[in-house]
Amino acid sequence: MKIVIAPDSYKDALSARDAAAAIAAGIERELPDAILHQCPMGDGGEGTLDALLAATSAERRTASVQDALGREATAAWGWHEASRTAFVELAEASGLQQLKRDERTALDSTTFGVGQLIVAALDAGAESLVLTLGGSATNDAGAGMLAALGGRLLDSRGNPLPPGGAALAELATLDLDGLDPRLASLTVQTAVDVDNPLLGPRGASAVFGPQKGATEADVERLDQALSHFADHAARILGEDFRELPGAGAAGGMGFAARAFLGATLRPGIELVMDQVDFDTLLADADWVITGEGQLDGQSLSGKTPIGIARRAERFGVPTIVLAGRLGDQWQASFDHGITAAFALADGPITLDEALARCGELLADRARTLARLWRVGSQG
């Protein structure tokens, strides 16, 4: 029996690698002879860099950057010498998981550190860049990244704008003349984990702003500010990318990647599956077990469990999801290849308890699945 264990990370609790290990431990207690392939996954958010480094044998490097609040931090990125390819994960520099819950501020957080990682890649001689989006603490439509790469965002008095999405409401001049000239020859692929546009009720601010600390009033303010930024960009570039599927990823970084880096946007999970040669793992698998913090209607927009289930369905392999929580409209996942889904909690439990016990709960659920499989296989 062969089981592919391919979870994403469980936000604020476990990395994808640790989650895979916990699931494997649970299965091994009941099915010690099973062949288990641990394949940590990512759809663009935190942990995606680890999956890509493992798949490509790229070198892990670090750079000194600013985090989402402008504090000095160290962020990892990947370098593949033979192909001159750099792997940059937004969440390493500007990730939500790096902030305490009471530090999250969608109004003022910045992607400046992501731009610093791209500069580090250019300094290494990068000709190709894989930029993974997701897990962001930011809602600045990539304005911080743009500033780090040499762009100037000025108010009506000619002063640089302060960091954050809210400040974009005061944008009077968007000057791209100082952008790093090496960007012109850089090929960029961007992994996105959602298909949301930049603005509106499905946009970056409305859908993802609240998890980054935005109030209802903040959401309206941010949406208007990002719209103003998009107006300036469209006038300069001669093309408007605000409605592009994925433009709203990572607080609008999808928009910035396409508009200012000329990036190709791809569903993150599809990009990662291709990099890790996931089809080979599926070819003779009996099961796939995947999961992440929450399975809900938004998961259909490109999250890891749905991407894996769609791919596994082509091979006739059942896909089981172990989710921290089953949210609104999670049942829709059954129409996209999910065979069964289970929440981790084993009774009334607070969020802090669930986060602390995530590994234990994953192992317990996996053990239960293994027992069920064993009974079923015995007829």
TrEMBL record:
It comes from the Bacteria. Transmembrane segments: none annotated. Its EC number is 2.7.1.31. It is an enzyme of class 2 (transferase). GO terms for molecular function: glycerate kinase activity. Keywords: Kinase, Transferase. Belongs to the glycerate kinase type-1 family. This is Glycerate kinase. The lineage of its organism: Bacteria, Pseudomonadati, Pseudomonadota, Gammaproteobacteria, Oceanospirillales.
